[in-house]
Design goal:
Mean pLDDT: 96
Shape: globular
Low-confidence stretches: none
CATH superfamily of the largest domain: Metal-dependent hydrolases
CATH topology of the largest domain: TIM Barrel
Largest sheet: 8 strands, mixed
Number of domains: 2
Number of strands: 25
Number of helices: 10
CATH class of the largest domain: Alpha Beta
Distance between the termini: 11 Å
Length: about 400
Amino acid sequence: MSKQIKIINGRIITPGGIITGGSLLISNKKIAAISGRDIDAAEAVIIDAGGQYVSPGFIDIHVHGGGGHDFMDGSEDAFLEIARTHARYGTTAMVPTTLTAEKADLLKTLDLYTVADAKNTGGAQFLGMHLEGPYFAMNQRGAQDPRYIRNPDEDEYKEIIAYSKVIKRWSAAPELPGAIKFARCLQANGILPALAHTDAIYEEVVEAFANGYTLATHLYSGMSGVSRRNAYRYAGVIEAAFLIDGMDVEVIADGIHLPAPLLKLVYKIKGPDRIALITDAMRAAGMPEGESVLGNKDTGLKVIVEDGVAKLPDRSSFAGSVATCDRLVRTMINMADVPLTEAVNMMTKNPATIMGVADCKGTLSVGKDADVVIFDNQVNIRATIVNGTLVYEANKVLS
């Protein structure tokens, strides 16, 4: 493929608004120019967007798997196939996420990330690892394996941090003994602390936020709301996330984990700039419904996928998401009544800001990485470009 690609005849979503009928030029993996007119680039390969939307690539900062694979499978092929699967649904960058596990399994996954990252040329780019657990409240474990849940262990987490530099975020319950010291250690090493699977009350979250827990992992899922203790009511993590203006929140916007009224509530209170959409997807994302496994393919939890979500076999509760990024954007538009450009920002600009990569990703701006998605009015993905390379096309779009 030519080093230059020119996208024409699209509705280009830029920070300044939507440019209709203009063009976008990609050169040497970067966005070289954006114009309301045709850009002169005689040698460029042409992509005719056909009047469809030209968007920044989707950034998924919390994803466990897809395409029949999980990041905990212990295989570099799993990493690569997950990246390829989600690229078909508009994901151009992702943060691979672990489940609660033994230290040895976490270290192995970090090793595999490094190997796979060097070979990842046909799918969504990796932005670093997200360790989800094992420092969680047992009461709020959800589908996390209780065998591995424990309090923060300073020797353990310092060893893990020293072992690999690819960890970019780590989710934990901030009320646990040692969790504040843990967050300070994360910050000192350039790792984002996030609160998750937590039974904290408001006052504990305020302290946690002051010590670096600035992101609420999958809001509403695995966290406390209003509770009674010794007859008195206490606000929980959910209320704290709403009340602390500076706290960012993740939302599994599949329309099932959170129904329309809750999506609307989150949008009304947090506004368009503090919400990041996440898939939290397990291996069954992009696969037919039926039996599946949450976590490692050999030792994970058996689940059943139906009605667009993973459930425990007895159907007593949800056991994981099978969402893809296009579905998240579509849900926010159709169910939460969010304007298209704001829904796109929740899947692009906001995640990039949270992960500290907004200088190179998250918007279509000259000089940024050429991560581009083309989708139609129903947010069906027609083409995905990662770092200037076309990695997916629904129909023939090159000319």
